[in-house]
Please model this.
Amino acid sequence: MSTPRAATSAREEVRKVAPKLIEMTEKVVYGDVWERPGLSKRDRSLITVAALIAMYRGDQLTGHLERALANGVTKEEIGEVITHMALYAGWPTAMSAGRIARKVFEEAR
Model:
């Protein structure tokens, strides 16, 4: 799986400050957890996008939206996740996620 642009950029910024954190990200998060057979990468992407919306983590959401598209989640499905999360995580978080998704979708063209 290729690493989304936003994630690559963020990792390189943080690597200069906390190289062990990035090593753990690459080995544990993406080298182990994302590779476990219990869920598809597509499902993991949907779950992660929903969690990031709920926690209002826009900075991380960009890279995970890119990853979700790469993992086969459609723009329409992402729109549905954002709409669904408005009821569970709050309207402002969903509106912010929608704005972030629009930027990601435009860049993905």
The mean pLDDT is 94. The helical segments are 5-15, 19-29, 41-54, 58-70, 75-89, 91-108.
